[in-house]
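Incident log, structure service

09:12 report received: a user says their structure output differs between two submissions of the same chain.
09:20 pulled the input from the user's history:
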Amino acid sequence: MDDKILVVDDEHEIADLVELYLQNENYTVFKFYNAREAVACIENMELDLAILDIMLPDVNGLTICQKIREKHSYPVIMLTAKEAETDKITGLTLGADDYITKPFRPLELVARVKAQLRRYKKYNSAPTAGENVIIHAGLVININTHECSLNEKPLSLTPTEFEILRILCERKGNVVSSEQLFHELWKDEYYNKNNNTITIHIRHLREKMGDTADNPKYIKTVWGVGYKIER
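09:34 re-ran on a clean worker, output below:
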């Protein structure tokens, strides 16, 4: 396994532990305790995933995430304090794909890493022959090329947003719960009802599509159940 993973955390014990668990899975790890060295790595290395602590002594992880997204599309997982809900939302808004709160189980983080890399590789794999396109009310999703447009205008979606929209469109007319979406995207067992990652990604999708929760044209919330796109 040649995947290269950036780990940035000023808490040496946490960074060292994450490095150990990832190396046990045969990942190549670039570990840093500060943002300055991490940014240099981002600029000079071809990476496959980044794990960023938000609270760093020089530049915070949110700024690093933003810098990554200027040039790169590989997955970013944020490490956040348990009570820092605003940081979680900000991180996802700036382009992070997932977050995990401290303290966390190392095996949970490894599972998240594997899920993100699987999806990223699938998202960036070469398209197979033939078109595989979903069309719905001005929305066009090309599954092979991973391109999406709405009323002939391109939509710039993260891999997570693209997958959520694809799943909802493939099952249009049916409700898909947040838990179902979570498991299809991350394929792990660490879902809990307090995890609002899907909710935030749905919000971003609506914003990009000019949709609203109160009067949805596309993504409808079925309260207490999940989300659906009407036929």
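09:41 both user submissions now match this output. Likely a transient worker issue. Closing.
09:42 reviewer note: Confidence is low (pLDDT under 50) at residues 126-130. The domain at 133-229 is CATH 1.10.10.10 (Arc Repressor Mutant, subunit A).
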